[in-house]
Amino acid sequence: MKNRAIASAFVIAVACGAIGHAQTGALKVLGSNGFRAVMDELMPRCEKTIGRRVATEFGTSTSLLQRINGGEAFDVAVSTTEAMDDLVKSGKVTAATRTALGRSGIGVGARAGAGKPDIKTVESLKRALVSAKSITYAGDGASRPHIESMFEALGITKEMKAKTILEQGSVRSAARVASGDAELLITLVSEILPAPGVEFVAPLPDRFQHYVSFAAATGKGSASADASTKVIACLSGPQTGPTLKAKGMER
Q1: Pairing relation of β-strands 198-203 and 99-111?
Q2: 0.85 cut: is pTM over it?
Q3: For a surface tag, which of 39, 130, 199, 213 has the fewest beta carbons within 10 Å of its beta carbon?
Q4: Closest by alpha carbon to 34, among 147, 166, 164, 138?
């Protein structure tokens, strides 16, 4: 009996220790590249709010969706609204916590100091794309279908395919431009502005502009629901307006 009591006490102690660690350890956040600049700016404030460290891992929304569907544990997910729809349907996130964060349009970037082409009108954009030696964008990025639809509408699909460098994620695409391997980068404005060695040229003309929206939700299996909810509130509150604007995003 005495041994059983000791064993029971040990099990309880281990369980309490695990709960305590879950409540005080680092909060795991999976974030989309498109919202990274905003998260990098706001997360220190969020950590102060919850009194815990936040461990954030970034990737394209497509890659994050694959990781989550593969069984990876997390406390908060930040992704495109389309990817979030899938997570809600599959029960990977708590639907009631889903919160809109902001949106970003698509723009063009060029290597810093290399000069900026004129893309203000449909005609000048077409000239800039056709005359560019090479372009790059993320093959798994949310903006890809809209970029390729634009090429088709401009009648330059064949020309662009021959000089397009597809990369995994906007970070690698931006690095291609910064190094001079590619002349122009086409991706979300929120991914161009923080890219080292890359200068923002301009947003796409209204005819071809498309906005990608982002949302956050807590993981269904998170043991830190309260802290996770507070982080989402920190990323979505009215005080985030100036940060969103500075990072190329809007409500």
Answers
A1: antiparallel
A2: yes
A3: 130
A4: 138
Measured CA to CA, the distance from residue 197 to residue 114 in angstroms comes to: 10
Q: What was the pLDDT predicted at 178?
A: 98
**Which CATH number describes the domain made up of 2-103+214-246?**
3.40.190.10
110-157 tens-digit pLDDT: 999 999 999 999 999 999 999 999 999 999 999 999 999 999 999 999
Judge whether 2-103+214-246 and 104-211 match in fold: yes
What residues have CB less than 8 Å from 18, skipping those under 6 apart? none
Q: What DSSP assignment string belongs to the chain?
A: -HHHHHHHHHHHHHHHHHHHHHHHSPEEEEEEGGGHHHHHHHHHHHHHHHTS-EEEEEE-HHHHHHHHHTT---SEEEEEHHHHHHHHHTTSB-GGG-EEEEEEEEEEEEETTS-----SSHHHHHHHHHH-S-EEEETTSTTHHHHHHHHHHHT-HHHHHHTEEEESSHHHHHHHHHHTS-SEEEEEHHHHTT-TTEEEEEEPPGGG--EEEEEEEEBTT-S-HHHHHHHHHHHHSGGGHHHHHHTT-B-
Please return the burial class of 6, using the count of CB atoms within 10 Å of its CB with bins 0-12, 13-18 and 19+: exposed
Per-domain residue ranges for the chain? 2-103+214-246, 104-211
Query: Using one digit for the tens of pLDDT, what is the confidence trace for 8-65?
Result: 434 333 333 334 334 558 999 999 999 999 999 999 999 999 999 999 999 999 999 9
